[in-house]
Amino acid sequence: MSEVSKETNNSQTFDAQQITESVEAGEQKLPTVDVSADYEASKEFSVSDIDRAGAGAQAAAAATAPKFPIPAPKDIAKPADTSGNSADFRSMAKEINPAGAPGNVTDDLVQKAIDLGTPGS
After folding, report:
1. What are the counts of helices (DSSP H) followed by strands (DSSP E) for the chain?
2. 8 A C-beta contact, residue 81 and residue 88
3. Which helix (H) or strand (E) holds 64?
4. Region class of 103: left (phi > 0), else alpha (psi between -120 and 50), else beta
5. pTM above 0.70, yes or no
6. What are 33-42's contacts with CB under 8 Å, separation 24+?
7. Predicted confidence (pLDDT) per residue in 5-33, tens digit
8. In angstroms, rounded to a whole number, what is the distance separating the alpha carbons of residues 30 and 20?
């Protein structure tokens, strides 16, 4: 079987360890990082050459253009029923489901339950 390393700090590579030791000994200086200069330099790479020329927008439009004609939407006038008559709604509901959904409580079912009474009475 292979040996498992029990060393807790094994994330540093040999090169990193060598640099650390040479910096501590004064043989080498720490590298400096200029974040603001790096950020300014990175702005050059954020826009490609094709986008600077304007051809990028044309290429994007050509790539995302639909392959088939898309019809324009049409407005269909549907006047709202402002009568407020609940019978109209009931008749529409009966057209959709004339028998009623299973498990629905109807007036006849409620009356039958009232006639039978409550359990234990």
Report:
1. 6, 0
2. yes
3. helix 55-64
4. left
5. no
6. none
7. 555 555 568 888 888 888 889 888 887 88
8. 9
